[in-house]
Fold each of these.
Amino acid sequence: MAVVTRAVKGTHDLFREDLAYHRTLLNAARRWLEAAGADEIATPIFEFSEVFERGVGASSDIVQKEMFTFTDRGGRALALRPEGTAGVVRAYLEHGMKVWPQPVRLWYAGPMFRAERPQKGRQRQFHQFGYEVLGAGEPELDAEAVALSYWILRGVGLNRLSLKVGSVGDREDRERYNAYLRELLTPHTARLSEDSQRRLETNPMRILDSKAEPDRKLLEELKVRPMLDFLGPEAKAHFEAVQERLRRLNVPYEIDPTIVRGLDYYARTAWELHHELLGAQSALGGGGRYDGLAELLGGPPVPGVGWAVGVERTVLAMKAEGLSPAPEPPLDLYIVALAAELVPEALRAASRFWPELRVQYGVKPRKPGKALQEAERKGARFAGLLGPDEAASGRLTVKHLRTGEQRTLDIEEVKEWVRGGGS
Ligand code: HAM
């Protein structure tokens, strides 16, 4: 019989150090985003496939090749969420958040699923935290969103970031740009990769994001004009206003005239945060404005702007810069019974400290010397020894492992001593 002791390719268990990095990032995200007035939202990890087909877009790689889809027992087509935005907008519409004071600021964190080829920085189950601002279209909101994504990453100590900001214009602008690309590229169809030949039909802009060598070569030869040249007056004014706000906030950005995001719902502002020490998968996060998304899902028009950051990639970036996760609080006290029949009493003693203090007890009796060693190995600040005398008097002999000071005290006194740090 095959042994099931391996996680599925592209998925990972998270514990100890890696989880500490994740927690550091999520705490930073929560702190910043809640300070800026965001409410947390948790949407289901699966939705009707249509939410993503219509939201993220049928011509996107995500929908075309990367969704984990399945049919439930009732014959409904479902998909594990490849990203968070479409579900958040679906929830906004479903729960009538339109009647809340606008804009509604929401943040979320959780696992996302994409059936991509696993490699460093690319997994099939990965984690994102994200921010979505719905119900208003002012350029301040784009700038606020960009700035928060940048500040959170700076706030955990990352220095080697580059923030690339562009605009993909309004729908008519993209239609004009796609028409331009079609005209330019159609005579060279045969030279395009198979994927890009398909994109030429469905959404030529996506060709610009292709990593395939023949596509890259052709694009270079043809000196393709960037999307930014095709912005209409309104999208252009909006982009300029966003940049003015970013300068006002002292957020250092570069303009990327060619930015193409991997999702079809974007309109106007689009940005990505890259890390200079990561290789092929250098995008830590990205986002943009998506004013048409609610309508794609069948709702009324709702302007929106937001972003998501990939947690695993950001952890790689933190490691590359030598950054540590925020330290976890150590074990306060480790209690050891000196005889087998006293182990239940060790459990009871430990329970009296919970949840104010972090206290563990040993399930095996130990001699005092071994007990102290075990407490040291656990990283505890104090060791508690429970022998027959202590058990009889309801006390504990406690040793402060750093100073070596030892006292026999009742539980309330131990609490006080431990809380006071051992002074
Ligand atoms: P995205 O650019 O597709 O945007 O993903 C955001 C981030 O998620 C990426 O920059 C990357 O760090 C991480 N990521 C994506 N795919 C993988 C993967 N297979 N393995 C590891 N990390 C990955 C979105 O998802 C949009 N929903 C962002 C957004 C929110 N736009 C508006 N609102």
Amino acid sequence: MSVSATVSTSYDYLFKVLLCGDSGVGKTSMLCRFISDEMNDAHIATVGIDFKIKVLEIKGKKIKLQVWDTAGQERFKALTAQYYRKAQGILLVYDITNEKSFENTANWLRMIQENAISDVKMMLIANKADISKNRKVTTHQGKQLAKDYGMDFLETSALTAENLSEAFSILTENILKHMQNQFDKEVVNSQLSINKLDSYESDSKQESSCSC
Ligand code: GTP
């Protein structure tokens, strides 16, 4: 397993994001482009799982993003499944020139439902948008699938870097928003509990001071 990191000593949050999708759709290439702005020309199938780190600044917060690149090959599914539940965000990738990779998103969605946390933030990624002359999956099909599952949707290219940093930024921002909403809810709930306790205490004081 290799690790590459931007030099970072301090950050506000650590988020774990996972890339999944069929073998060859371009997950490793997307990650290489995002992390080090390089293109991965050859398809060297990922063995098991790999991860890379990048620090993003979103809404004034420094976020350390740990991105897990999972192998698309069937034989690694049992191994990669355990990483799903640790992820707060998932990028589900297909290749616009490969219809099978689009159809197989149904299997990946099942894998996500079975293994990830219930409130995981997801985005559907249609990669290889630069080779639209070989396109087999329309933008409308991608958008519709994303809508059906309540996911965001973007067409990207690891080759030209189109929408690549946007994909990671939007997903990270969604995780951040969700986390802050959860935090706000917890604050309101604990405030309600304190109020309840206060009114219970004042009721019992009144009762105990009653002379009758
Ligand atoms: P596994 O590790 O087997 O799961 O594959 P992967 O999804 O990580 O695919 P990988 O990134 O290795 O890319 C497979 C092939 O597609 C490589 O030859 C890449 O150069 C090519 N590729 C990836 N992304 C793009 C893209 O956006 N445009 C074009 N034209 N080629 C791409």
Amino acid sequence: MRVVSGIQPTGTPHLGNYLGAIVNYVKLQDEAHASGGECFIFLADLHALSMPHIPAELTAATREMVATLVACGVDPGKTVLFNQAQVPAHAELQWLLNGTARMGWLNRMTQWKDKAGKNREGQSIALFTYPVLQAADVLLYQATHVPVGEDQKQHLELARDIAQKFNNDFCPEDAPLFTLPEPYIPPAAARIMSLRDGTAKMSKSDPSEMSRINLVDDADTIMKKIKKAKTDPEPLPSEDAGLEGRAEAANLVAIYAALAQCDVAKVLSEYGGQGFGTFKPALGELLIETLAPISARFLELKQDREALDAILARGAARARERGVPTLDAAYKALGLVRG
Ligand code: TRP
């Protein structure tokens, strides 16, 4: 079991990052560790260049995200935790794979279409080739499990296509170079929505602070945001089906279930028939209880820049070492001469 995943270093991590991605990293890290496998988690700082960015903010956000990951339970003793920029093999392998990836494949990527909108000509080339770097990220370590959200499934399929074509074009039939990676979308992958609009993902780019719970929000702020969260006047239903067409109610119940590590049915069996006047304070308390130790640890780690940089340096050294065999084999397969 070789777990590989990347997370963009967005500043101010929120509940959506935690329940949608980070908890799954921790679960898989522990599974991989227990079964003699390996886990690689990295900050996708090279991917951040695909959109306009402010250099100093990228630096700060990278350290902040490492602190977040560690505070949430990613253990640098069990996981190879690093940032792409310190492992040149990611960029090198991307270039090698650029010869295999097809324009037509990239043109079909929905993230590219969504982000570029009507202004394709004005986008960076990095935005277009973003999925090739992502393929390099996972193929470099021969990933078997790639924990991602639903929105990244297409990029993983592309990584499989690239791996397959490279294996076909450049490797003997009985000795393919690249392992075909599987997207691993955990059954309980919580897709956390905005507290103001149950149809939009919780996001740091939402202008309303009330739309999200930041991992560093204090108890009062969390309770206030939950109490003000948009809902409807009906009491909670007793069965899942009763949440249909009630996006905001469904989101709050899903958050509760994810935090309590149970399913939605269990939450409804407890709170069905009750109004939000009862449910919201219970949810608020559960959030406060879960996030308090995380934010305390985060704030402590954030002060210690040296410790954070040391974690990244150690992880990067390990990642560089682990990536060597595959990168070397890729150069060789392509007939490139190197000393
Ligand atoms: N594109 C991913 C996202 O936005 C981040 C990412 C970069 C990633 N490289 C990866 C995820 C490799 C999984 C594997 O969420």
